[in-house]
Known about the structure:
InterPro entries: BOP1/Erb1 (IPR028598), BOP1_N_dom (IPR012953), WD40/YVTN_repeat-like_dom_sf (IPR015943), WD40_repeat_CS (IPR019775), WD40_repeat_dom_sf (IPR036322), WD40_rpt (IPR001680)
Mean pLDDT: 77
Strand order of the largest sheet: 11-12-13-15-14
Shape: elongated
Protein name: Ribosome biogenesis protein ERB1
GO molecular function, one term: ribonucleoprotein complex binding
Strand content: 15-25%
Region (Disordered): 1-129, 328-386
Family: Belongs to the WD repeat BOP1/ERB1 family.
Structural class: alpha+beta
Helix content: 10-25%
Largest sheet: 5 strands, antiparallel
Distance between the termini: 146 Å
Number of helices: 13
Oligomer: single chain
Amino acid sequence: MAQRAGQKRKVVEVPRPQPDPQEEDELDAVALNGALEDNDSEEESEGSEEAGLDEDEDEDELEDDEIESDEIPSSEDEEDVRAQVDKLRTNDRPNTPPAKLMGSDTAKDVSSLSPETPMKQLGQEGRKRKQLLRTEVDANGEPRYIYNEIEPNYDSDDSDFLVPTNTIGNIPLSYYDEYPHIGYDINGRRIARPAKGEALDSLLDSIDIPEGWTGLTDPNTGKPMQLSGDDLEVLKKLTRNEAPGEGYDPYPDMVEYFTGKGMEMTMPLSAAPEPKRRFVPSMHEHKRVMKMVKAIKEGRIRPYRAPTEEDKEQDDAEQDFASYDIWSNEIPRPDHPMNVPAPKLPPPGYEESYHPPPEYLPDKQEKETWETQDEEDRERDFLPQDHSALRRVPGYAKFVKDKFERCLDLYLAPRVRRSKLNIDPESLLPKLPDPNELRPFPSICTAMFKGHDGRIRSLNIDPQGRYLATGGDDGTVRVWELQTGKQLRRLRLSSSEAVNQVSWQPSRETCIIAACCGENVQFIIPQGDICNPQQDRRSREVLDSGFGYATSNPSKTAAGVDKPSSANWLRPSTTLQDKGVLLTLTLRSTPKTLAWHRRGDYFSTVSPSTAATSTAVAIHTLSKHQTQHPFRRLKGLAQTVCFHPSKPLFFVATRQRVRVYDLQQQRLEKELQPGAQWISDISLHPLGSNLLVSSYDKRLLWHDLDLAATPYKTLRYHSKAIRSVKFHPSLPLFVDGSDDGTLQVFHGNVMGDSLENATVVPLKVLRGHKVVKNLGVLDVEWHPREAWCALSGYM
Length: 795
């Protein structure tokens, strides 16, 4: 056991019998080692208990620790040990052999010892010192004493001093409040209660706060708890709520942003290339380039070397024997991964052999069939032939043509691999209903009206659907019974001018036909059984009411002068009045188109051949005999017009545009762009939301007025110009007539809801009029209620 602090250490020497000569050397070494080690070993153990030094520290550190410890050694022992060590080092007894020295802390001669001299026994303690010390010879030939490393053995006195721990277990410390101790250590000794209260406060005031002091008390020992820097950092993170949760990995794997397969160009922020606007040109390079340009202009630097005569001769020789290999580069280019090599011709088969097998030779019928077919429909460009020898094969007549087409294939080939989708073309087409489910629609010709000489330019059916009025090149207007095809009335308006347009007034209370012949518009009341007495009387009142209004309310200018009229409303001659013509409107140009307003009081005429575009379109009031030209300057050449069925909108079609005007606001409402080269006719749907435009360039254009200004659908079903197009007044049908002599009937269902698109389904192709002088169907018209369609042209 280690000696307590403050207690003097005493050495007792015990006389010992003379050792054997064989053991003399070993005992002398042990005695010498013991003399040198006695104080050092004790000091070493005491120093390790207080300061906790490592066992591998050198002797100087042990001495320093010994001085710093709180153990006060005996002054007499210290002086005695030092005197004996000095005497050994100075070798005061040169004549005394080491064998006669007694191993003790005094190192006296054996001969000088007496039985009364106190001596220390050399037992286990001597053997331990012998194991802890070894002797070596230094460079000067003198002995050198080296201590072995101490192996910790906790059941020996040389072990490190253990701090006493409280072993009371789970008993609370409050049970020891009345006692001066707080528990017991492992050996059963009491553990004193540490100082507290005034004594601790005075101690803390007298000294600085040590590092790691937290003010906490260990519940087991009652002493202040000291924490390391790492422990304090953990506590700080816990108080700041910075502790990581479960599964947190403080050392994650590194993410290789710039290495690895497929991640060479991946950037953590952006993989976009550097923009050109960040490029800053170098002024130094600019100056050098300008110097080079100046030298080239002055001729001091020649960018190209002038060819010599040898170079020219070599180029001429290469041109004479020039050869081009179209298969020289068949490897796909690395800069374009989708590149494909040039297609190769398939190898020749048995058909191309000069002596093919008999089964490949065509018979007489196959030869005739092949010769009568078109070149595009033939499976092969040649017929297999049999020759007895290769030298008998004649030259191929299409050799140059095949090579030329092969070169074109190589030149025009895209040479880029494209992904082809295996899609059935029929699946891309919209699913249209069966035409049989969309009946009724016209399908056969039921009646033919013959009587005109030449072309029938125009036709129209009365609002009640009983009579048909026609006008043609012979200058006559004829009225037919629609169901029987019987001609009821015939009226000649002119012998030199053709009737360009005929139209019934849309009112059912009247029976008036407006016919455009030359520069006149004639208003006719058909005689006979066509009109009943009430319709005849009402029709005459409508035509005569305008004369009184024009007389009582003449149009004047701002200065009060009578305004000259561009049209004259007159009574026709007596001859025409007897035939039923009661009113004549004379214009300055020939009207080609006449369109009525839904109320029957207003109508508009279009004169495309007029000299001034401002007078091309005119709006007339029948009840007041007034004529107005709404446009001071019209853009384009007017072709046809129509009124909106429910709104004060007026549609004017020029050659390439359709403009919609608001008559009340007197402004342009919308401009449609059909994209046609020359518009021939327009037709407005009864709901007023869709417009059909026909053109001379074989196209029929469907415009949805609620959508964009461009066509909603473009229909191409005719091979020649389309002359006329009409919507049915009550059924979802429309029809167009073309110069190719055909009539296309379509199902056009228009929903009242603007969210649903219109449905267009082709139903029937009707063939009627002959094509004479490249003119076919000139005009079409629908029955007001039935799915009956009438068309005009050459008979």
